[in-house]
TrEMBL record:
InterPro entries: Alcohol_O-acetyltransferase, Atf2/Sli1-like, CAT-like_dom_sf. Pfam families: AATase. This is Uncharacterized protein. SUPFAM superfamilies: CoA-dependent acyltransferases. It comes from the Eukaryota.
Length: 464
């Protein structure tokens, strides 16, 4: 698309991959839920108008600043898929409302699961691929949960914190506009940002990295690759060729003691959660399996040359993967230090992960085939393991104002043919929240509940 306008371009590799998950019908959306306190009490009646009057100016402003918020994919299911810009937007297409009990953990889990399972209509190129859900409680007129939900083709998890850093700043500084009009014209994008694979990221060497990987994953007969992966945990029940239906459980804990212990042990909360997940999976999920693969998306912005600006939204991720044999033989904190060292040493190579997508072949057919391939390759029909996607400590920079962030929940849809379980975490202040997701029916809910309780128990015990 060399002759395309400045506000349009073809899809990058990661963007094709994320859309491929939609085409394979194995994945939904990503979301970040922020638990907010607003100093001004909303009215008990007509709260929708009150929130819209507050949010619409901020929505308009941030849409003028972030290209992906005003972009959609045209011809998404063809080889000519490309970004185009919306000309006008309506806050009513973005903002939806829910009423829940904010103090009921089950209600919050249900709210977040609903957002994970939301499907944006890719055929409608007049509507944005993101939304804001405002969940309010009639018993608390000064609090709400604001859930940002987006199609993963737009941007990664870190981008959602970039969004809210700016959005809350705008809410605390932009004058409220008392008007019924919710539509606004979109400022033209001067130049659509280039995707990750065109920003000089780390790239694999053809002979020493690409060819061996292709030989192992693509050329060896499936019975040989299966034999080499004996003992890997791939889930409880066989995957079905079905639409994703994500279930959610949330763990919350104070981190004061955990952080103190991590500093003393020369480790980090992320590493502690990683090891706690292995130990809990070993006792509560894995049965006779002896190996557990853990996948960790990494923020690859700093690996590009030049580095991606810290305020730029988009898909800029790598993937770091390790396999643990259970039971673990080292002490808890020694395991965290070993993992921390591996993660540090492996971060650069993890940034190469998406480059291998260039060797898949044509989009969309080969991408869709690749994403569904675990269903054919493995007896249980999925790749296996646990994904731990961690936004780490989110130091919200908006300061104090009318709108204040109290805690947050990061979550995403399960991938039907990939990991049977995902853990998505973020820390705000001293509140760590971990959202655990799984495909309905793929793992028994009581097993997931026991796993969640065990992770929490281990982290509390190791914080002492």
């Amino acid at each position: 698309m060399s002759d395309s306008p400045a506000n349009s371009r073809s899809l990058g590799l990661l963007e094709k991959y994320q859309l491929g998950k939609r085409l394979a019908d194995c994945y939904g959306t990503v979301n970040l839920a922020v638990h907010l306190h607003h100093a001004t009490s909303r009215p008990a009646q007509d709260e929708k108008s009150w929130y819209l009057a507050k949010l619409t100016p901020a929505i308009h402003q941030i849409c003028d600043e972030q290209p992906y918020l005003v972009s959609v994919v045209a011809n998404y299911d063809t080889s000519k898929a490309h970004w185009i810009q919306l000309e006008n937007m309506d806050a009513l297409d973005i903002v939806v409302f829910k009423t829940i009990s904010l103090q009921d953990p089950t209600a919050v889990e249900s709210l977040i699961a609903q957002q994970c399972n939301h499907v944006f209509d890719l055929n409608d190129i007049t509507k944005p691929l993101w939304k804001l859900c405002i969940a309010s409680d009639p018993e608390d007129l000064n609090r709400c949960i604001l859930v940002l939900t987006w199609d993963h083709v737009l941007y990664d998890g870190i981008s959602s914190t970039i969004f809210f850093d700016r959005f809350l700043e705008l809410l605390n500084s932009t004058n409220e506009v008392e008007r019924s009009e919710t539509t606004f014209a979109v400022q033209s994008i001067s130049k659509m940002p280039l995707p990750y694979d065109q920003r000089s990221p780390p790239t694999p060497k053809l002979l020493t990295e690409v060819v061996p990987k292709a030989f192992t994953q693509l050329l060896l007969p499936s019975f040989i690759t299966r034999r080499s992966q004996v003992g890997l945990w791939r889930g409880q029940h066989k995957a079905k060729e079905e639409t994703h239906k994500t279930m959610v459980r949330i763990i919350e804990m104070d981190t004061d003691n955990l952080i103190t212990r991590c500093k003393a042990e020369k480790s980090t909360p992320h590493c502690a959660v990683h090891v706690a997940a292995i130990m809990a999976a070993s006792s509560e999920l894995m049965d006779s399996a002896t190996k557990l693969t853990l996948k960790t998306p990494i923020n690859a912005r700093g690996l590009c040359n030049p580095a991606i600006p810290h305020c730029e939204m988009g898909n800029f991720v790598g993937s770091f993967e390790t396999t643990a044999t259970v039971p673990l033989t080292r002490s808890f904190w020694e395991e965290t230090r070993v993992y921390r060292a591996k993660l540090k040493d492996g971060k650069y190579n993890a940034g190469k992960a998406s480059a291998y997508l260039a060797y898949l072949g044509s989009y969309p057919d080969e991408y869709k085939k690749y994403l569904k391939s675990p269903f054919e390759k493995h007896e249980i029909g999925r790749g296996g393991g646990i994904e731990l996607s961690d936004l780490a400590l989110w130091k919200n920079q908006t300061g104090k104002g009318q709108w204040n962030l109290e805690k947050a929940t990061f979550c995403q849809s399960i991938n039907v043919y990939d990991t049977p379980l995902t853990m998505n975490s973020v820390t705000v202040g001293n509140k760590l929240r971990i959202a655990i997701t799984w495909q309905d029916g793929a793992t028994d809910a009581d097993k997931v509940d026991n796993f969640a309780k065990k992770v929490h128990q281990i982290l509390i015990e190791q914080s002492q």
